[in-house]
Amino acid sequence: MKDVSGWCAQTSFGEVLLVMTRNIIFFGLLTSPNSAFALTCRQVEDIKADIRALIPNADGPYLEYGQEITPAQRARGDFIGGVVRLGWHDGSTYSQEDSNGGMDGCLNFDDPANKGLRGIWQELRPVYRNYEDVCSRADFTSLATITVIKAAGGPDIEIPYGRVDADECDEDWGRFPSLKKSRDHVRKVFRRMGFTMQEAVALMGAHTVGRCELKNFGLEGPWAENEHVFDNAYYHKMLDLVWERKVEVTEEFGSQPHWDHAKMLLMLNTDISLAWNIDGDNDDPNHGDPHKCGGDMQCDTQNSYRHVARYAQSQEEWFEDFSSAWIKLLSLGQDGDLQKCESEEDSDSYDDRSWFSSW
What we know:
- The strands form four sheets. A three-stranded antiparallel sheet has the order 1-2-3, with no helix packed on it. It has a three-stranded antiparallel sheet with strand order 6-7-8. A two-stranded antiparallel sheet has the order 4-5.
- The longest helix is centred in the N-terminal third of the chain and has 21 residues, at about 70-90.
- By secondary structure, it is an alpha+beta fold.
- About 35% of the residues lie in helices and about 10% in strands.
- β6 (about 245-250) and β7 (about 255-260) form a beta hairpin.
- It has one domain (about 1-335): Peroxidase, domain 2 (Orthogonal Bundle), CATH 1.10.420.
- The radius of gyration is 21 Å and the shape is globular.
């Protein structure tokens, strides 16, 4: 991903003048957006290894309830959560009705919903520069997400390759979910992309890694204590803990309704509405009488609740459903045939990385 606004460059293949007047970021290539790459399996493993080397190390035991996270664990969680968010924000711009957006290697950093992602890309960009002649921006970002998910203890997700990059993405503006809204909004946003409610609940479990930062969201805090670990804590925290409606007010973000547990963990309206019956968009912390669904308590959110309960009980089932939904997300907007990486016997296009690492 390159921020190429007002930017000129030359390549050794000939002089290429690149003048960009809009603050659109491209994930790095100076090639035609209509060209796709065929990655070899060796290239895939090399890229994964270089991305793993960027992940901060964090020793220490799995945190129990109330234990304080270490600075190293927080740094690891920030990076892993940021990379997952980067992939989500690229793929989730897809509109099934309009047939545009999706996992196309294009983001606009000026969109307030993308705050904080520029820094994540700046950490990834040195690795991508070593592979930009053989890997599309969208493929690289997709690879980065499945690499950090696995490194955090999540499922080992295998994805196809050959994504084609877009040269602009103006239509993506405003397509991201609102933090203030609730279940009906979740259903609408995910339906726009072609996801079922079950897939939506599975994908939202990715909130188990990383945290909200005040400078990016107007809120501060993680969804689970072990914000550096990819597990099903998001679901059982949602069901097992007592949540209190709060409103954070900042000059930049205005009022941000959310749900607080003991000033340690938070849930957004879009999260808690999956398992609790709430009044979705009201900023008054004393408004309404929220109650958890399930058992004898039937409510409008019963359909999503049953998936939350299932994933809280079985991490294995969540991993399976999440993997399927994540592969689908990373393929949105790609009209061509995506294929598994090629074995060395199938391709002679790749020698040693040192051939292009010095460009």
